[in-house]
Design goal:
The structure is a single chain. With 136 residues, the protein is mainly alpha-helical. The protein has one domain (4-130): Transferase(Phosphotransferase) domain 1 (Transferase(Phosphotransferase), domain 1), CATH 1.10.510. Helix content is 43%, strand content 3%. It has helices at residues 9-13, 21-36, 46-55, 67-77, 89-104, and strands at residues 114-115, 129-130. The longest helix is centred in the N-terminal third of the chain and has 16 residues, at 21-36. The termini are far apart.
Length: 136
């Protein structure tokens, strides 16, 4: 079953349909935790955590998080419908590599916009430049 806080929505709603994309969601939870100090959904009641995972959007991030990283998190990793999430860790690595290259090049302003890979199929794909969500 796994640790409730790191479970993908489909692990709760359709456990027989689970595939490798649950790991992409779990990576999103881990990244969120690294950026905020806590998981996106927190409760003393594991059933409440599972309900939040299925029904609620993750809380907004601090304004200091670069918009590109925020967009990767909310529009690529923590997307509830798995078909709209990034589909492979290879896709995740391609985006992370470009973020690292922007920082190393001395052009961190490149982190201010999220240029979507342009693949069809969901919020993380095919939308061109994605606007960041409102921030805390």
């Amino acid at each position: 079953m796994g640790t409730p806080a790191y479970m993908a929505p489909e692990q709760v709603t359709s456990p027989d349909a689970v595939d490798c994309r649950v790991d992409i969601y779990a990576l999103g939870v881990l990244l969120y935790e690294m950026l905020t100090g806590h998981c996106p959904f927190v409760s003393d009641d594991p059933c409440q955590v599972l309900a939040q995972i299925v029904h609620e959007p993750p809380p907004a991030l601090n304004r200091l998080v670069p918009p590109t990283l925020e967009c990767l998190l909310f529009y690529g990793l923590l997307v509830k419908p798995r078909d709209h999430r990034l589909q492979t860790m290879g896709e995740v690595m391609t985006i992370l590599d470009s973020l690292i290259a922007a920082v190393r090049s001395g052009q961190p302003e490149a982190l201010d916009t999220f240029d979507d890979p342009g693949r069809p199929g969901g919020a993380a794909r095919g939308a061109g430049t994605v606007e960041p969500r409102p921030r805390a």
